[in-house]
Design brief:
alpha/beta, Glutaredoxin, five-stranded mixed beta sheet, two-stranded antiparallel ribbon, globular
């Protein structure tokens, strides 16, 4: 093998190794870019050091009143490091058919929502947002894995970006179980 060919092979392997290393370092939760309801891209790594409560939401669901306790959690714990993140989804009974503007207006008018709201996404299936593909996978490191079953499922994420817990729709955001888990994560600095 010529010296030049050996150099090119070595360089290719080094570049490939560097790319693999960069991909391996991408945080499975915080390594994503999502869009707000206004279409502004947000790097989720900007939330590093915060405790996150990630929720798939909908405006026309029996669980829609959960917006109220989510907003209460936001007001009570935002200064301590909690970020509530709403991700509208229309995959369950077509209960989030509106535009980003419709969703924003509905949330503010009916529930005074001030927490971070993002553009409508899919949480299941082939077109699911990569964030949700991870959250629902066995790689998330929690026992409750698999597809999102309905609106208002909640994922609690530690300050380090690790999935701590998953709460299905029936578990209210302000239940003792959820609040205790949030407070426990907030105490960790």
């Amino acid at each position: 093998m010529s010296l030049m060919k050996s150099f090119c092979v070595a360089l290719s392997l080094a570049v490939a190794a560097g790319v693999a290393s960069a991909d391996e370092k991408k945080d499975p939760v915080l390594g994503h870019t999502m869009k707000t309801l206004t279409g502004k891209p947000v790097e989720l790594d900007s939330y590093k050091g915060k405790v996150l409560l990630i929720v798939n939401v909908a405006s026309r669901c029996g669980a829609t009143p959960q917006y109220e306790p989510l907003q209460t959690l936001h007001k009570k714990y935002a200064d301590k490091g909690l970020v509530v993140m709403g991700f509208p989804c229309n995959q369950f009974g077509k209960q989030e058919p509106g535009s980003s503007e419709d969703i924003s207006e509905f949330c503010k008018k009916n529930y005074g929502v001030e927490f971070d709201m993002f553009s409508k996404i899919d949480v299941n299936g082939e077109n699911a947002a990569p964030l949700y593909k991870f959250l629902t996978s066995k790689d998330a490191g929690i026992d409750d894995v698999g597809q999102v079953k309905w609106n208002f499922e909640k994922f609690l994420i530690s300050r380090e970006g690790k999935v701590v817990a998953r709460y299905r729709t029936k578990v209210q955001p302000d239940s003792d179980e959820v609040v205790a888990a949030i407070e426990k994560e907030l105490e960790k600095k």
